[in-house]
Amino acid sequence: MIDLMSLCAFNASYAHTIDSDALEQWPAFFTEKCKYRITNAENEREGLPSGIVFADSRAMLEDRIAALREANIYERHRYRHVLGIPLVESADDKGAVARTPFIVARIMHTGETTLFVTGEYLDRFERSGSKLLLAERIAVCDSTVTDTLLALPL
């Protein structure tokens, strides 16, 4: 059965990949046919399927990173994730469903650091061989106000 420590280790590695700017490795945390969405609590509560960011395959996540590196122009910055302990809603040998609170600070190239976003991940994990992967991650942000500089993945 997938245990709490496995989910904690997965989330720590996921956050480290983003925070250390190893963005090309980020899509590998997902299954080939996956869902990744960033939305806010109000939209999620009302069942509105659209999000600030939406992808339904690993290939779309890879395209997003390629666009960040090659096409998009945005002010240089980085993130620092602080993650809570996952609340496991269900788990067996094949997968797990969990929710994990997060806080993300944004550090600008000037050194200015601000609290960027708080929320929780709503996750559906699948086991692929000995590896744990995300079949779905919905990043539900607490605030309905979204900074226009949501360039990096959460």
Sequence-ordered SSE layout with sheet pairings:
Layout: H1 4-19, E1 30-40, H2 41-45, E2 53-55, H3 58-70, E3 77-83, E4 87-91, E5 95-108, E6 113-128, E7 131-141
Parallel strand pairs: 1-7
Antiparallel strand pairs: 1-2, 3-5, 4-5, 5-6, 6-7
Q: How is this structure best described in words?
A:
The chain is α+β, with helices and mostly antiparallel strands. The chain has helices at 4-19, 41-45, 58-70; strands spanning 30-40, 53-55, 77-83, 87-91, 95-108, 113-128, 131-141. Strands 1, 2, 3, 4, 5, 6 and 7 form a 7-stranded mixed β-sheet that branches. The two termini are 27 Å apart. The relative contact order is 0.24.
Radius of gyration (Å): 15 Å
Number of helices: 3
Largest sheet: 7 strands, mixed
What is the chain-wise order of helices and strands? HEHEHEEEEE
Would you tell me the overall average pLDDT? 93
Cα shape: globular
User: Span between N and C termini?
Assistant: 27 Å
The total count of strands amounts to: 7
Helix content: 10-25%
Output the structural class.
alpha+beta
In terms of DSSP E residues, the strand content is 35-45%
Runs in which pLDDT lies below 50 for 5 or more consecutive residues are: none
